Amino acid sequence: MLKRKIYDKLLDWKNRKSRECLLVQGARQIGKTFIIEEFGRREYESYVYLNFYRNPEHKRIFEGSLEAEEIYKKISLYVRNVRFLEKETLIFLDEIQDCPNARTALKFLAIDDRYDVIASGSMLGLCYKEMASIPVGYERSMEMYSLDFEEYLWAVGRTPSAIQALRGFFERKEKVDAGIHEHFMTLLREYLVVGGMPEVVNTLLKTNNYQEVHATQKKIMESYREDIKHYATAASRQKIGECYLSIPRQLAKEYTKFQYKIVGKEGNARRYENCLNWLVDAGMIKLCVNVSTPQFPLVAYEKPDQFKAYVTDIGLLASLYGYDTQAALLKDTLTGPAKGGIYENLVFDMLTKRGLGLNYFKNDKNTQEIEFLLVRDGAVIPIEVKSKRGATVSLNHFIEEFAPPYAYKLVAGNVGVSDAKITLPLYMAMFL
User: Fold this and answer.
1) Would you state the pLDDT for residue 35?
2) Is-above-0.90 flag for pTM?
């Protein structure tokens, strides 16, 4: 079983909740169903599972009255061997996007509060299925992602104590031993290619074959195309696919800002903007917006028409470039702007999975670009990403002009400190 951090968040919800259901959202195939089922079996005396996609007849439970008592009665009709034990039963409503009435019913189940209720669904369906009523105030929403780098390290056999020892170098701002440094750089390049989709990680663990990994990624991409056909309108399906498949080209430019003209002929915001938003709602990509000035609060200075688009699983992005590129990434022989864009996406992947909100900064003169900005205690902290060793002219100018309390430079090299600039190996992004 792949160890997931969200399990502890589920426990925290169980122990702290009060008249509140939990909605776990996320892209397809990131492991939502598996981890919630495991949680139900381990933490409760009784576990009730409804799947509205696999068993469409379960939708009948939520027809007519949505009073909690009526729902429990109907569950007993449709699900074998049901036991309802007060405070010791978890009801799991899976693929809830296929039953809008069940989403509405969360309010009444929360008010009743005899049994815990977790719902799960793809962000796609939750955004594009009509809901009669959203249970505001009775539903806590939690977003789930594919495995982050630390979870990947657990999966491939690195112990929490080994990762904690590595964290010590980060906290002390101390150089990592050369052998350890190269070991974790190798693991990072592996994560760069494999990513965090559970089926892909398990493929690597079972086969030790990167070609099988690539084949599994292609299978997942095909399932995403089927989701586009299922949820998107006929008029937008092709354009949505064009937007997604343009991202490898967008990230291969010197300046990785998203440009509609790269997507296709006559590309412009009017033609493609809704399609890009569709991919965001699906959890397949996230956007990072430029700011006019790197001042707190960053949201006040955002330029909504200037943004970068990143794939939410770094392994799926690498697969879009093809197996030969994945092999070159593993061997660290890839060169050119594409490598820089891929590593940008890697760091974005690592930081957003830690729950960090990010912007970027490129000045009006196009003379200065900082890949990411984050906020710490009201201060704006710049992060520059380098896929190899090299000078950081933009970061140096940023420090001189805006005087942040500190700044991060993420590189293939080792730890170092020079005044306000802290240089870290790329793998230490998991500690920021």
Assistant:
1) 97
2) yes
